[in-house]
Amino acid sequence: MQVICNGYFYKDEKSKILDAVEVFNSFFDISDNFYFSLNSVTDSEISKINADHFNKDYSTDVLSFPLFSNYDEITNLNSDYEESLGDMFVCRPVLKKNAAHYGKDFIDELQLVLVHGLLHLVGYSHSDEVKMREKENKILHKVWNEFKR
User: What's the whole-model pTM score?
Assistant: First the structure.
C-alpha cells in the first residue's frame, strides 16, 4: 500500500509514516498498487470537515474517509490495478497538543493516529472498540519496537 502525502510533512515525518504503513501492511497485506491520501490540514480546516461530515463542531486529530466498507471488499479488488482506499486528514496543532498532554513525542502521536485512521480505512470502527484497540496496539507495538529511532 502506498501513501500520498499532501500538505505539511517534514522529511523525517514522511519516513516514519512510511515505516508505520509498512508495519500496518504486514498485518493486512494490501497491494502495492493501492493507496490512500494523507492530508495535513489546519485546525480550522479539520474543524470544518468534522462539522460538515460528522456534525461535530470542533477540531480533532484525525478523520478518515474509507471508500470500502471492510477489508474483504479490499481483498476482492483486482490488485493489478491502482485503487484508492480513501482519504485521511490529520491536524498538526491537535497532534502537538495531544503529544504534550500524553507525554509523547510528535512522531509517536502521528504514527498512532495514522494507524488508527488506517484501521478505519480497512473497515474497523468504534462500534467494536475493543477489537479496534487490540489491533491498533499490536500494530503500534511493532512500529515502535521494530523501527529503532
Answer: 0.94
Nearest-5° angle of CA 131, CA 132, CA 137?
Answer: 100
**CA 93 → CA 80, 88, 96, 128, distances in Å?**
38, 16, 5, 28
Query: Which residues constitute the domain of residue 48?
Result: 2-146
Question: CATH number for the domain including 117?
Answer: 3.40.390.30
* Adjacency order of strands within the sheet including 34-41: 2-6, 34-41, 83-91, 62-66
3-state secondary structure of 63: strand
Residue type, 52: D
Q: What is the pLDDT of residues 68-82, one digit of tens each?
A: 999 999 999 999 999
